[in-house]
Every structure is written in structure tokens, then in C-alpha cells.
Amino acid sequence: MVLPHSMPLVPLPVSVIVGDGRMPLSQTARIVGDSAVAAHLIVAIARRSGIRLAHSSDATGEILLRIDAEAAAPEGYTLTVADSVEIVGGDEAGLFYGVQTLLQLLREDDDGWAFLRAEITDAPRFARRGVMLDVTRHFFSVDEVKKFIDSTSALKFNHLHLHLSDDQGWRIHIDSWPKLTELASSTASLGAPGGFYSKDDYREIVAYAAEHHMLVIPEIDLPGHTHAIGVAYPELVEDPVMNDSLLAESERLGQPLPVAGEPYLGWGVGHSSVRIHEERTYDFVRDVVRELAELTPGPYIHIGGDESLGTPQADFDLFVERATAIVVDEGKIPLAWHEVGAAKDIAEGTVGQYWGKTTPEGTHAAEAAHFVERGGSLIMSAADVAYLDMKYTADYPLGLTWAAIIDVRAAYEWEPTEVLDVPDTAILGVEAPLWSETTRTIDEVERLVFPRAAAQAEVAWSPRTAPERAWESFRVRLGSMAPLWKAEHVDFHPADEIPWSTR
Ligand code: TNX
After folding, report:
1. Last residue of a domain, which of 104, 122, 140?
2. Which residue's CA is the nearest one to ligand 1's atom 13?
3. Is the full-model pTM beyond 0.70?
4. Is residue 344 included in any domain, yes or no?
5. I need a labelling partner for 434 at 20 to 30 A (CA). Which of 17, 211, 380, 457 fits?
6. Cβ pair 95, 87 in contact under 8 A
7. Cβ atoms 162, 219 nearer than 8 A
8. Which ligand 1 atom is the nearest neighbour of the CA of 337?
9. 337 Cβ inside 6 Å of ligand 1
10. What is the pLDDT of residues 268-307, one digit of tens each?
């Protein structure tokens, strides 16, 4: 009998027929086909096994890679491992994902390296499978972001949301407002060094992401989370407005309070707002959105909209209505955190990002639903399951706890279409955010992201009703990712819940 979790694959493919035994990886095997994906496969196999395969110079070889739009859905693929390997992608992305699956089938046993035999047909459930990296609370270099792209694209994530501005710093150069990076980028949380991306740096990230079939979504958080803008351009930002939770948390954590015009080193939220009744503010928003749109091949610009706690509701509504319209004017689709759905006249088609809990509280569900009423759709980032910055256990050294303590099982066991009362078709997919208040290095980021991002990858990719789309199967399959992560130097949290395998 074939055990349900007998193939070490995450996310679970649509259909897997387990084959008989293994196909040894021979030093002389040659790869035929599309060169970008082939080059990627050669490097990845070499890093895992030390065996460096060659690219075939003619049409013959043992590992065949090709694209056939008739043979598989967009982003889908078929993969056969028998006496040779064949991967047929429905498109480039599909071929890339087929290669990721093949790398999971590559295993070392007592007889050496081999591919497990299988016949797989696969395609994603949701078109949008995202991760977010907060580069404001702590800054991560271009190379670190590339490493993050490597490790998340291997799980078939196809969007990278970069949170580029917040109270603690502005991280992308804007030609028309140069003081943003000159004066407001050099610090981060708790005195950590800051940093920013030049436009060339940013283009390099976008291009690298594209090679890994990820679209970059830039976020400029507005109208709140804007203290840093005021460090560069004081005329654009109101004086800080304290709230009780900011005061209490700053006291508890021994963090400084925000002071107008000075870099903010704490991580309290809700104290800042741009000046909503100044026309200059909208010149600023338009310039920033225009320059970001020029750098962004993907359709979305994210304008934030969360936690504007000191902003009167009428002002907030006015601002987000104007800001979403500006994004549309500049040729992009606005994306915003769910609070923006409180405003009646947000631009039609604005996409909302829901970050409330799996049981919605207060006005969150109604705000999210309003995006759908305006012809938009939703991305699900339910904070009590999908937030990668929550602690695994109460005593875990990294992370926060405000939304929940999220062990791997909790991260896995949720259903994105069952949180809100909207049609299933309104849900574009899932995004797992990593907020970086507590993560000073990319290794620390990885320890929060892995393995829980793999849970979100499966929620977003795999068919909802497959028998193996269940915790008991997942935990065993997840355990088999350890040797792949080790080979790629991905730092992961070896959670007790998972039977980690060594090869
Ligand atoms: C809430 S989620 C925030 C962020 C924090 C995060 C920490 C959201 C849209 N806003 O400003 O970094 O909590 O978990």
C-alpha cells in the first residue's frame, strides 16, 4: 500500500502517482531544454549533491525540460521520473516549479544520490501566493533579499511584497524627494543601522525576483506609519499623537517615544500621519507613486493604510480615496491593508489585504468586504495564522505575540475562503508577512519564516480537499525539507512538532 505521505513534497501537488524505486543521479546525465531553468537546476543539484551536470549540446539527454501550453495550466507542470526525467511546464513559471518539485525528489540514500520515481501533474489553487518582508524596522541588503527570494520561490511563492517605508525609515530612493533617503534612512529599530535601495539596487531585486517567477509589490505605508517622512520633510507630517497602547508598550519595553523631526527608534505604532489637508501631501504621494510605478513591472502599488490611530476617520477616508485614485491614474492597481475599506469611495478595483484574525473582530470583516463591493478582491493574511513574525511558543526568543502564538500546526490548519463572508472568487490568494521588529539579521528572519512559510505555501498552492492535504501528512512531508534547507543554508526553526529527516 502506498502511504499517503510517501512522497517528500511541499506544497502537495495536485496528483502524485508514486513510482517504483529510484533513478540514480549519474555524473554523466545531461539536461536538455530551456537554458535559464536548466542553469538553475544544474546549480541547485551541485549545491545539494556535489554532482555538476552538464547542459546537453544537442536534443538528447536524461533530464528533459520543455514548455507546452497545451500540456499544463499556467504555472502548472507535469513531471515524470522513470529511467529519465521529463518536466513539461505550461509556461516558464510552470517549468520552474516542476524543477523545484524535482529537487525535492532528489534524495541521498545508502546507494548514493537519486531521484524518487513518480508521475506528477500539478498547478496552483490560488494565482496569488505571497510573502512580505519588512525592510524598514530592520534593513536587509540586496543580497539578503535575493536569498529570501531563493528560499521562498522554491516553495512556489510568486509575489514578494516589500514594506519599504515606515516610522523607522524610508528605504527606496525617490529622485523628486531626495531627502527621504538622505535624511530618513540611516537608522532602524533600537539603534540598528538602516540603509536604503538605490533605484539600481531595486531594479536588481525586481529582475532577480522575475528570474524566480516572483512579482515585486512595493509598499509605501500611508497616511500613518510616516514618522520617517517627517524626518526628511517636516512640512508633510503632523506632530506625533500618542495612544495609550504606544505609551504603555514603550514604557514596558524601555523604548523611546517618537519626537517630531527626529529618527524614531522604538516600534510603537499609530502615532504618525501625513498632513491630509495640505495639497503638497498629494504632490508627494503622486511623485512617489509615479517613480515606484516606473520601477514596477507588476500591476500593484501598495499604499498601506493600516493603524492610522491618530487620524480622524473623515480625514483618513478622504486621504485613502485620493491616494487610491492616484495609483489608478499612474496606471497601477492600488493594494491596501483592510482598514482602507472603511472609506466609501476608494478607487474601484482596489485590492484589500486582510490582516485581521480568522474570527474577524470589530469592523474588520465589513472593511474587507467593501473592497469586493467596489469591484476589487482580497488577499488573506490572517494575523493569527499567517503572520510569520509571531512566536512559535511563548518562550521563543524572536517574534511578537499580539495576534497569537503560532506553532506550525496552527500556521497550517486554516482555510482562506472561510474567514470572511465574501464569494470564494473574491479571494485572490494568501500572503504571509514577516514584520522585522525583532529580527536583526536575515538568519533570524529565516528562523521565523521557516518552516511556517511552507505551511502557507501549501494552503495557497495545494487542492483544498486532497486526502493528503492534512496535518499528519504535511508534518512528515515538511520534515523532509530539512536537507534541502541545510544545503541552501536556510536557517529554520527545528520545531518539535515535525519529524525532521536528515536526508
Ligand atoms: C501590525 S499588520 C502592523 C505592523 C507591525 C505588525 C507586527 C499591519 C498592517 N501593521 O506595523 O509591524 O503588526 O506584527
Report:
1. 122
2. 435
3. yes
4. yes
5. 211
6. yes
7. yes
8. 9
9. yes
10. 999 999 999 999 999 999 999 999 999 999 999 999 999 9
